[in-house]
Amino acid sequence: MSTPASFALRTKLTPTTPVLRAATAALWRPEGLRGRYVRYLAAMHPLVRASVPLLRRAAERCAELDDPPSRRLAAYYTRHAEEERDHDAWLLDDLATAGARPAPMPPPVVVELVGAQYYRIEHEHPVTLLGYIAVLEGHAPGPRLADRLIEATGLPAGAFRTLREHAELDGGHLDDLHRVLDALEPAPARQTAVSVSALHTANLLTRLFLSLADDPGGHP
Fold first, then answer.
1. Which InterPro entries did the record assign (predicted)?
2. Which residue has the higher pLDDT, 110 or 172?
C-alpha cells in the first residue's frame, strides 16, 4: 500500500516545525508585545486579504484542466473560499479596535508568500496551493493565545477576534485538506510540487515572524 499523500506532506514539513515554533515564540515574547501585536495584525491583513482571490483563481485553473481530480479540487477550493470570506474584514476591525490602521504597503515577504502561489497556480498546477494552505492552517493560533495576549498587551478583547476565530476553525480545515489530498492520490511529481510549495511557505512564514519579532519600531 502506498503512503498517503497527507502523511508524506506532514513528514516533509516535520523539520520546519521547531524553527517556525521558535519564530512564533519570539513573536509573542512579553517585551514590547503590544506594539508587535499591532504590527502582526497589519502584516497579516494583506496575507489574509489574498486568501479568497487565490482560492478562486485556483478553482478556475482546475476548471480549465477539466479532469476528475481537478474537478474535485475545484470543489474544495470553492468551498474553502466561502469559508475564508470576510476574514480580512475581521483583521481591519481588530486593527481599528487596537487604535491602528493597515499598513500602506504589505511587507515584501508577504508579497513573496502570495506571489509564489499565483506563479505555481498558473505555471505548475493548482494542487500546489494545498501546500501553502497546509502550512498556514497547520500553524494556527493556539486556543489560549488570545487570552494570554489580552492580559499581556492590555488591548481590548475586541482586538483579538481573528486569533480566536482561527484557533477554532483552522484545525478542522487542516483535517479537511488532508482528506482531500489523500482522495486526489496525486502522482509523485505532483506530491513533490505540493511539498515544495509547503516548504517554501514555511520558510517565508518563518522569515515574516522573525522580521516582526526583530522590529523595534512603533505601530505600522
1. Haem_Oase-like_multi-hlx
2. 110
